[in-house]
Amino acid sequence: MSITQQEMSLVTANPPPINVDQIFAEVEMSGAETSQTVRATVVQASTVFYDTPATLDKAERLLAEAAENGSHLVVFPEAFIGGYPRGSSFELAIGARTAKGRDDFRKYHASAIDVPGPEVERLAEMAKKYRVFLVMGVIEREGYTLYCTVLFFDPQGQFLGKHRKLMPTALERCIWGFGDGSTIPVFDTPIGKIGAAICWENRMPSLRTAMYAKGIEIYCAPTADARETWQASMTHIALEGGCFVLSANQFCRRKDYPPPPEYLFSGSEDSLTLDSVVCAGGSSIISPLGVVLAGPNYEGEALISADLDLGDIARAKFDFDVVGHYSRPEVFSLNIREHPRKAVSFTTKVTKDETVKKT
């Protein structure tokens, strides 16, 4: 038995695998009638905190197992590469920081990845090796600012692009930067139009509407929210958008994080044992008709899979198309600013008038 099989339990709604070559040859997303299915898997597993190379190795083991079971699309949780710093306060208080808090950020910054960078290249190679569409939650490093980001790869090993979390929640705002309108992509692929929103930004109606307007069909929702109330949001989005929703969360125990005093769960450390669950997962897959196809799983690390009948998208839109026949553009409108937000812009082009003055 492989290490991956020992660590993970495969949870699938429809076990028989699908031929990968066949799916790419036969799926047509141009509006033609289709009853084709796509095998999708959401990964519910913990980061190896402060150890990005080990986390990448673990990601490859999980990806290999999902591919072996016929998956065409694999979605990892929020901040899987780089880690979600659950329970950490970075010793922040209004108007005050500490030496330990600063060093905690230094270590967290060192665990993040550059985009593009060698870790992105390895993820692309993994997607190609296992011939899957890969959606991966990472902590992205740009200089000394960190972003909670989702990366997208195709089965040919191409890096398709990224989505940066628009609105970090609560203390996340002190350690992560804010995304902008330039990274809200929806990618048109042979298995459907794929995009992602991260954790509580799924509660932002304007962001969801932008993604619906881009035609999203497979809506990925990497998250850190393991509460049962999260499932209501996921079901609502599936029904509202007429899309498949794939929600992936980590399942973590205290022992998956460094021991104290290196890493402390603020306010709860004294009550935790090594086996205490600090994030219970709850990953799930929901159809455009609001049917829960797989999950939610609160039992442990798992690969949670389901076969997506792409025809369900049209069946759901028959009832409700939020940016189509059920919209009221003469009453409501939404303007999306997709240009990058930059703190500094440089102009290097010399105009004709400036050239004349210099001579």
TrEMBL record:
<dbReference type="GO" id="GO:0080061">
    <property type="term" value="F:indole-3-acetonitrile nitrilase activity"/>
</dbReference>
<dbReference type="GO" id="GO:0051410">
    <property type="term" value="P:detoxification of nitrogen compound"/>
</dbReference>
<dbReference type="InterPro" id="IPR036526">
    <property type="entry name" value="C-N_Hydrolase_sf"/>
</dbReference>
<dbReference type="GO" id="GO:0047427">
    <property type="term" value="F:cyanoalanine nitrilase activity"/>
</dbReference>
<protein>
    <recommendedName>
        <fullName>CN hydrolase domain-containing protein</fullName>
    </recommendedName>
</protein>
<feature type="active site" description="Proton acceptor">
    <location>
        <position position="78"/>
    </location>
</feature>
<dbReference type="Pfam" id="PF00795">
    <property type="entry name" value="CN_hydrolase"/>
</dbReference>
<dbReference type="GO" id="GO:0018822">
    <property type="term" value="F:nitrile hydratase activity"/>
</dbReference>
<dbReference type="InterPro" id="IPR000132">
    <property type="entry name" value="Nitrilase/CN_hydratase_CS"/>
</dbReference>
<dbReference type="GO" id="GO:0047558">
    <property type="term" value="F:3-cyanoalanine hydratase activity"/>
</dbReference>
<dbReference type="InterPro" id="IPR044149">
    <property type="entry name" value="Nitrilases_CHs"/>
</dbReference>
<keyword id="KW-0378">Hydrolase</keyword>
<comment type="similarity">
    <text>Belongs to the carbon-nitrogen hydrolase superfamily. Nitrilase family.</text>
</comment>
<dbReference type="InterPro" id="IPR003010">
    <property type="entry name" value="C-N_Hydrolase"/>
</dbReference>
<feature type="domain" description="CN hydrolase">
    <location>
        <begin position="38"/>
        <end position="310"/>
    </location>
</feature>
